[in-house]
Design a protein that fits this description.
Oligomer: heterodimer
Distance between the termini of chain A: 65 Å
Radius of gyration of chain A: 25 Å
Order of helices and strands of chain A: HHEEEHEEHEHHHEHEHEEHEHEEHEHH
Radius of gyration of chain B: 22 Å
Structural class of chain A: alpha/beta
CATH topology of the largest domain in chain A: Rossmann fold
Helix content of chain A: 25-40%
Order of helices and strands of chain B: HHHHHHHHHEEHEEH
Shape of chain B: globular
Number of helices of chain B: 11
Number of strands of chain B: 4
Number of domains of chain A: 2
């Protein structure tokens, strides 16, 4: 008769030990040196999730580098939230593996979550609690000491602009305030990794700007941010890296510049120059972000390798070479075009190709 | 930042705090106290009301408190179980608050146990209030009371009786993630077993089945003997709803023998109805069986709920 391993039966996410003993307890202490040298804070291999016949996430190989702001971009229903829920243990993968902060993720393995902050899509927080109470209780759940909670909770409430409303019930908060409190609770444990699911969803323009400012603040503090969004301009403004997912499949993943460049090729800066001389051309070519320069009558076509705004640098160099800039125009596709290309939805291009 | 990862107790207490604040803020605890207060007051005032309506005068009754069951009955146990437990798991799913909660570094087992313990504490506080109020009220209305030292035993019994229903409510709430199904599921089982139990027990003589089902159980008579108008003796319910009163009666009357009867209906007139003795058993058997039944049901339903909760995926 086959021996049933009770640990596997009751704790399906845990590795079998052959006996129902205390060994399944994971040592919760973290090797911080290991974390410092960690290359990828998130790494999935062939991660798969199915809902019946629907494959929501299809063999996803995701790598999120440490100390980056990584956007997870895709249309609604692409599998973003499903992926994020698997990363924090709310959904069980049907295939593949997940490693977060160097630890293999098993089912109901709470210790890994002690170093992750997670804000769900449109966070639903218990309305019967006050803002400060909620953070205090969650802080206790993170195992934070009283001193730590007393320092961290007011700091975060201040950061997200809820200090004055800390003693109001969450049920009385506006959607934007609840969203901001959702971010605060995700940062409570000073996490190494913050996972934000559509942080701007449902907010008005002012709220969206506020949330983005907060995200930039988080990034400045050296926290790796993994951010799902269907808003291209949000990703463009906040992220350094991006993975684009469609129908559960990752269609591109790299730095924001590389993803754009790979698909659309380099951006072309078209500069109309009076007194266009060889000296001007030479000086422009010497700029570090310039890939190539060509001349088209009075126009100078500058191929740039970066997504940064380089117009002032180019203008200065041209002036230094004796030229006069009459007009300047950056030609190239927006990330939106790239995104639509990758999803195969760029109708203009499809029609042009016909 | 100092993080104490090994503080299971701290996390467990945090879950209890989270849950108790819900009970307090949602006025759940207050509601239960009001119901308990109303029941006890009604029980205390019943004789006075009867007297005002032309009944016999109210006399001193030194056994009032010990015989009153603190105004609690099977339905109240179910009601309190529903109020304390119907939304401890299901409401978290319904409102979506389960998502941030489960994303915290607290195991699902700890969350489950913390919530269950908070429900137990709420219930304990309500019953303790009820017992104290009933004891003081009984003393004031009916004079000095006997056997008050046995009142805590009734508290224990009432908790046992309610815990079964808590486990059943929890089971439905966790399985279906719906507070309504949790409430009506438990209520349905209680109504079903109570009504069907009475009918089967009296008519078919198969009431013993209901000894093993939560609720009022079988009906027997202490030191009973049959008579044309029914058995003579003290009626005793063997079910899990009566653990408290049975425990007290056992202390007071340890030698009771419980006898069970069935009705034979030969015609349509009362003299054609016959009460037939079925069997007898010691009172201690009745109590031990009901406690065992309570424990088995509690453990089984809680274990299933825990297993379902632990494996639950958050798809919404």
């Amino acid at each position: 008769m086959n021996r049933v391993d009770l640990k596997t039966f009751f704790f399906p996410g845990q590795k079998a030990t052959g006996a129902f003993n205390k060994e399944f307890k994971v040592d919760p202490r973290v090797n911080t040196e290991e974390l410092v040298s960690l290359e990828f804070v998130i790494k999935t291999v062939d991660l798969t999730k199915k809902y019946g016949d629907l494959v929501a996430v299809d063999r996803l190989n995701l790598e999120v580098e440490a100390d980056t702001v990584h956007g997870f971009l895709g249309p609604n229903g692409a599998g973003k939230t499903t992926t994020l829920k698997m990363l924090v243990g709310l959904l069980r993968p049907d295939g593949g593996s997940i490693s977060v902060l160097g630890q293999e993720l098993g089912w109901d393995k709470p210790d890994v979550r002690s170093r992750i902050g997670y804000m769900p899509e449109l966070p639903k927080l218990p309305k019967h609690l006050k803002g400060r109470e909620l953070l205090d209780i969650y802080g206790r759940m993170y195992g934070m000491s009283k001193d730590a909670r007393e320092k961290q909770v007011p700091r975060l409430l201040d950061m997200v602009g809820l200090k004055k409303r800390e003693n109001d019930l969450i049920g009385e908060y506006s959607k934007g305030m609840q969203q901001r409190l959702g971010i605060a609770q995700a940062l409570l444990n000073e996490p190494r990794l913050v996972i934000l699911d559509e942080p701007s969803l449902g907010l008005d323009p002012v709220g969206m700007v506020e949330i983005r400012e907060i995200m930039k603040e988080i990034a400045k503090e050296g926290v790796t941010v993994f951010l799902s969004s269907h808003l291209l301009h949000e990703v463009e403004q906040v992220c350094t890296h991006v993975t684009i997912i469609n129908k559960g499949v990752a269609v591109a993943s790299d730095t924001l510049e590389q993803v754009s460049t790979k698909v659309r090729g380099p951006s072309i800066l078209e500069v109309e120059v009076d007194k266009l001389t060889e000296t001007v051309i030479k000086k422009v070519k010497e700029l570090p972000f310039v890939a190539d320069v060509s001349k088209d009558g009075k126009k100078l076509l500058v191929e740039v390798k970066t997504r940064d705004d380089v117009r002032s640098s180019v203008s200065q160099v041209i002036a230094a070479g004796g030229g006069v800039v009459m007009s300047m125009n950056l030609k190239g596709e927006s990330l939106e075009d790239v995104f639509m290309d990758l999803l195969g939805k760029n109708k203009k291009k499809v029609e042009a190709a016909k | 930042m100092s993080v104490n990862h090994s503080g299971w107790t701290v996390k467990f207490l945090a879950v209890i705090r989270y849950e108790l604040l819900w009970n307090l803020r949602k006025k759940k605890f207050l509601g239960m106290l009001i119901v308990a207060f109303a029941l006890a007051t009604l029980s205390l005032a019943l004789n006075h009301i009867a007297y005002a309506l032309g009944g016999p005068p109210v006399e001193l009754n030194p056994d009032f408190v010990i015989n009153s069951n603190a105004g609690l009955s099977g339905f109240v146990f179910v009601l309190f179980a529903i109020v304390t437990t119907m939304n401890i798991i299901s409401a978290e799913f319904e409102s979506g608050t389960i998502v941030p909660l489960l994303a915290k570094p607290v195991s699902r087992t700890t969350i489950f146990l913390g919530k269950l313990f908070a429900a137990f504490l709420t219930l304990l506080a309500t019953y303790a209030f009820l017992m104290i109020y009933m004891t003081v009220g009984g003393f004031v209305v009916f004079g000095p009371q006997n056997n008050l030292h046995l009142v805590p035993l009734f508290l224990v019994g009432a908790l046992f009786s309610t815990l079964i229903w808590i486990a059943i409510v929890l089971f439905f709430g966790t399985l279906f993630r719906s507070s309504l199904i949790a409430a009506f599921g438990a209520l349905g089982i209680w109504i079903g077993t109570t009504i069907i139990g009475s009918i089967i027990g009296i008519l078919a003589g198969q009431g013993w089945i209901f000894t093993y089902i939560p609720g009022s159980g079988n009906q027997g008579f202490a030191n009973g003997s049959p008579s044309p108008l029914g058995p003579i003796g003290t009626a005793v319910s063997t079910g899990t709803d009566s653990i408290g009163s049975n425990l007290i009666n056992y202390i007071l009357h340890p030698s009771w023998e419980i006898t069970y009867y069935k009705i034979n209906i030969a015609g349509t007139t009362p003299d054609q109805v016959q009460w037939v003795r079925l069997y007898s058993e010691p009172f201690s058997n009745v109590i031990l069986t009901s406690i065992a039944v309570a424990l088995v049901y509690f453990i089984v339903f809680v274990a299933i709920s825990w297993y379902v909760f632990r494996r639950a995926q958050i798809t919404e």
